[in-house]
UniProtKB/TrEMBL annotation:
Belongs to the HAM1 NTPase family. The gene is HAM1. This is Inosine triphosphate pyrophosphatase. It catalyses: ITP + H2O = IMP + diphosphate + H(+); dITP + H2O = dIMP + diphosphate + H(+); XTP + H2O = XMP + diphosphate + H(+). ITP binds at T9, G10, N11, V12, N13, K14, K56, D74, T75, F149, G150, W151, D152, K173.
């Protein structure tokens, strides 16, 4: 029977995307069953994305039954011109000023380059924490495409053929996104661990 792994998120779009990213290859039996739970977790005030993710998954471990495998995911948008800010705080900036406000932050700068970073912290059934990170380079542009997924409409990845994430087909985005890169590392770890139990 497949092991159960809990993903801490209340974001339906994110859950759907992660299910796609962690789905087994065609014809393969799933190594685990992915469920989700929506917890309010404290956000550590830290510039280290790894520390923030570790802190969150440690809190999730405390709320779940001992031996439950769980992971959290944190995605940051780091502007070159701001030495990495807004970084992990991008969701609060987005909530407060919207995509246009994020674009306006760079209005006085020639350098619009940004790095999208996803950090996944996974606590296995033994309580050991593993951290995986994926990165995608790009630039901040005026909003284009759907607005249903955070700041996707203002991030144009270098490998995106001139499209923002929001303008890309899901499968194309999943080829190059920082989230897909982080989850490819988690998937590799889980599939390697599935023989010995997650």
């Amino acid at each position: 029977m497949a092991s159960k792994i809990v993903f801490v998120t209340g974001n339906v779009n994110k859950l759907k995307e992660v299910r796609m990213l962690l789905a087994p290859a065609e014809g393969q039996v799933p190594a685990f069953e992915l469920t989700n739970i929506d917890f309010d977790l404290d956000e550590l005030q830290d510039s280290s994305l790894e520390n923030i993710a570790r802190h969150k998954v440690s809190q999730a471990q405390e709320k779940l039954a001992k031996g439950t495998a769980v992971f959290v995911e944190d995605t940051a948008l780091c502007f070159d011109s701001y030495n990495g800010l807004p970084g992990a705080y991008v969701k609060w900036f987005l909530k407060s000023v919207g995509p246009e406000g994020l674009v306006r932050m760079l209005a006085g700068f020639d350098n619009k380059k940004a790095e999208a970073v996803t950090t996944v912290a996974f606590a296995d059934s033994n309580g050991q924490i593993h951290v995986f990170q994926g990165k995608t380079q790009g630039k901040v542009v005026d909003p284009r495409g759907s607005r249903e997924f955070g700041w996707d409409c203002i991030f144009e990845p270098e490998e995106g053929a001139g499209k923002t994430y929001a303008e890309m087909e899901k499968k194309d985005k999943n080829q190059i996104s920082q989230r897909s890169r982080a989850f490819a590392l988690l998937s590799k770890h889980l599939n390697g661990a599935s023989n010995s139990g997650v």
